[in-house]
Structures are given as C-alpha cells and as structure tokens.
Amino acid sequence: SAVISQKPSRDICQRGTSLTIQCQVDSQVTMMFWYRQQPGQSLTLIATANQGSEATYESGFVIDKFPISRPNLTFSTLTVSNMSPEDSSIYLCSVGQMNTEAFFGQGTRLTVV
Amino acid sequence: SQQGEEDPQALSIQEGENATMNCSYKTSINNLQWYRQNSGRGLVHLILIRSNEREKHSGRLRVTLDTSKKSSSLLITASRAADTASYFCATEAPGTYKYIFGTGTRLKVLA
Prior knowledge:
The structure holds 2 protein chains of 2 kinds.
Chain A: E1 4-7, E2 10-13, E3 19-25, E4 31-37, E5 43-49, E6 56-57, E7 68-72, E8 75-80, E9 89-96, E10 103-104, E11 108-112
Parallel strand pairs in A: 2-11
Antiparallel strand pairs in A: 1-3, 3-8, 4-5, 4-9, 5-6, 7-8, 9-10, 9-11
Chain B: E1 4-7, E2 10-14, E3 19-25, E4 31-37, E5 43-50, E6 55-58, E7 61-66, E8 71-76, E9 85-92, E10 99-101, E11 105-110
Parallel strand pairs in B: 2-11
Antiparallel strand pairs in B: 1-3, 3-8, 4-5, 4-9, 6-7, 7-8, 9-10, 9-11
C-alpha cells in the first residue's frame, strides 16, 4: 500500500494566478498520475508524471497550462497556470503499479474567483 | 477522456434493498476497479477484479466482469444509508499502468 499526502487540501485563488499542488508518497513508486474532477463529474486523467523525463499528457491537456515536475520517485508537483473559474475542480494525485490497486491522495479542492 | 460509461447515472433505493451498478468500457483491460466517493471527498477502493476473473466478493459487495461484453457490475446487498455515495469504475489497459474512470453512478439510500 501507499500513503499519499497532498498539499494544499484546498485553496481559493484569483483568476490569472497559478497554484502549485504537491504530492508526497511514503514509498518509492514508478508511476504517478494527476487527475482532475470537475464539480459533479468523474475523474479525468491529466497526465502521467515520469521521473527523469517530461510528463505524458492526455488529450485536451497541455504542458503550458499544467506543468508537472517529478524530481524523484516519491514526489511530484502539478501547477495550474493562469487560472480561470473553469479550473475550479478537485485535483488528485495517484500512484500505482501495474495490475494492482491504485492509491489516491485526498485531493486539492481549488476554487478560482 | 472517459474509458467507459456507468449506468444508471443515479439510483435511489430504500435501505435494505440491493443496488446494482453497471460499467461498460471500450478497450481490452488488465483489470477493473471499483471506488466509492462520499460528497467529493477522497476515493475509497472497494474491489479490484483482474481480466481473468469473473466474480469477486467483499462483504456485501459482489463484482462481476464479462470481458467478452466489456462490462462489469457492482452489486451492493442489503444497502444502508451509509452506502450513499458516488461509485466509479476504473480500468487499466494492458501496458499502461494508468486508470481511466467511468462516468460514475450516484447512489442514494433512503432510511
């Protein structure tokens, strides 16, 4: 199993600013992922955070808007850049190994005003 | 993007009744997981079923998987008010490690 700590747990931000979300895992993991959950919706995968190389983004998500860092096997950050109210969502960090349970952080609830 | 769809989108039942939710997906999978989420909080893992398995049980939960139909179902027996939550299926495609979520079912259990 893995314990994931996400910070901040929530934030209210002004439009046009950026927020960096941190994800810390209590053990080394190969794969880390970032998800977005818009109000009343399911989870949508933003990107896979790769250690030592650029993140792999899903269709509809770009690095300029959601830059991701993965400096080591236990830590990653997601930045939401130049925010607008449409970015108000819960952002979740996840880790997993192939064919096993995926673990999730408690999420960061972002409100953009 | 969503890998699959769940139905119904919303379900309201009386306490003590059974609740069945269905998940359909589009591509071949390594496994399928079911999660519960209460009021926008964190995800609680319920069951993982691998592609070579057909049925799994955990307490009041029963999950089936039909890879020929690309579908899974989650049955909650003898439901309780505390089961009120959103339920999501998530699939892992072979070689990808990543999970793609279904659209979810909102379950309301009335006391």
